Amino acid sequence: MLVRFWGTRGSLPVAPQALPVQAKIARALVAASGKTFANEAEAAAFAERELDFATYGSYGGATSCVEIEGGDQAFFVCDLGSGVREFGLNSLRRCAGGHPRVWHVFLSHMHWDHIMGFPFFGPAFDPGATIVIHAGHADAEEALRRQQEEISFPVPFDWLRARIEFVIHPLADPFEVAGVTVTLIRQHHSHDSYGFHFERDGRSVIYSTDSEHKLDNMESEAAFEAFFAGADLVICDTMYSLGDSVSLKQDWGHSSNIVAVDLCHAAEAKRLVLFHHEPTYTDEDIQRMHAETVRYEELVRGERPALEVLCAYDGLEVEV
Ligand SMILES: [Zn+2]
Ligand SMILES: [Zn+2]
Predict the structure, then answer these.
(1) Closest ligand to residue 111's CA
(2) What predicted TM-score, i.e. pTM, was given to this entire model?
(3) pLDDT the model gives residue 173
(4) What's the 210 CA to ligand 2 centre distance in angstroms?
(5) Nearest 5°: phi and psi at 102?
(6) How far does residue 308's CA lie from ligand 2's centre (Å)?
């Protein structure tokens, strides 16, 4: 399977502004002082080699949308945040090259940051497209229809041309979609959210966002340990630092980088991806959190095999 991140922010999309971009350029110029480059390619090679990600790159600002390549003859995508606009355009280009026009959407929940991209999802306007929305919530269709009502949006849901189908799945009953086995878990979050476990040919990917883990609720944590067990890749809600999540933002429905590492260690998962970044965090803040998480993992690892910690950004691709 191949996991491709189209949107990695939580709560609200963010756009780059002039001041942080200027600061990145200034840092790059200082790092390159005294050097000369014959052309842009040479300068880009230097930047890639010598500069940190927060200077040379950006984590991006689209909200939750993660593609999982690995289904037979169909696209798989988790959540319909603002990142789904770009994914829609990209997938339609792949359809022009012969890919079947079938999209399976796995919806964690219907908070706005996870559905706001759907009115801009190109395939929904394609009469040849089939879109199947898999959810744990019985009111998933109501939520998608409501955000396109006239008072909020000019194009009503019924004007969409694709064949759109909603499938509501019971908990803990694995089901098969285009050759991939999928299982749901209910997560602690306002109006509930669901995590998804995708498995194919002995490889597994878990998408678990908008999930608050209560450190004092061992029974629920045991269920997550079992759900994450041995996973090759766990995409995890790590919106806050531990300090914030246990003091200021307890009961806000999100989790921390520390809890995610502890859960992945207990489950002997192989790789963790930090996801659903807080919209007020700068690229430097997210980079610092990533570095701190890597250090924490090393400190508490003990005799366990290493857990690789990645940090999601819009455009990241991970082979699983
Ligand atoms: Zn969210
Ligand atoms: Zn939410």
Answers:
(1) 2
(2) 0.96
(3) 84
(4) 5
(5) -125, 125
(6) 26
Q: What angle do CA 293, 296, 299 make, to 5 degrees?
A: 155
3-state secondary structure the chain: CEEEEEECECCCCCCCCHHHHHHHHHHHHHHCCCCCCCCHHHHHHHHHHHCCHHHHCCCCCCECEEEEECCCCCEEEECCCCCHHHHHHHHHHHHHCCCCCEEEEEECCCCHHHHCCHHHCHHHHCCCCEEEEEECCCCHHHHHHHCCCCCCCCCCHHHCCCEEEEEECCCCCCEEECCEEEEEEEECCCCCEEEEEEEECCEEEEEECCCCCCCCCHHHHHHHHHHHCCCCEEEEECCECHHHHHCCCCCCCCCEHHHHHHHHHHHCCCEEEEECECCCCCHHHHHHHHHHHHHHHHHHCCCCCCCEEEECCCCCEEEC
- 96 Cα: distance to centroid of ligand 2 (angstroms): 34
Pair 194, 184: CB distance under 8 Å:
yes
Distance 114 CA to ligand 1 centre (A): 6
Query: What is the C-alpha to C-alpha distance for residues 227 and 124, in angstroms, rounded to an integer?
Result: 32
pLDDT at residue 216, as a whole number: 74
Buried b (16+ CB within 10 A) or exposed e, 91-102: bbeebeeeeebb
Q: What residues does 250 pair with on adjacent strands?
A: none
123-132, 168-177, 265-274: range with lowest mean pLDDT: 168-177
Question: Is 308 a residue whose pLDDT tops 90?
Answer: yes
Tokens, residue 141:
């269709």
CB 84 within 8 A of CB 53: no
CA of 78 to the centre of ligand 1 (A): 12
Q: From the CA of 12, how far away is ligand 1's center (Å)?
A: 8
Q: How many CB atoms lie within 10 A of CB 305?
A: 9
Ligand nearest to the CA of 63: 1
Ligand nearest to the CA of 81: 1
Q: Which ligand has an atom closest to residue 7 CA? A: 1
Strand partners, 186: 194
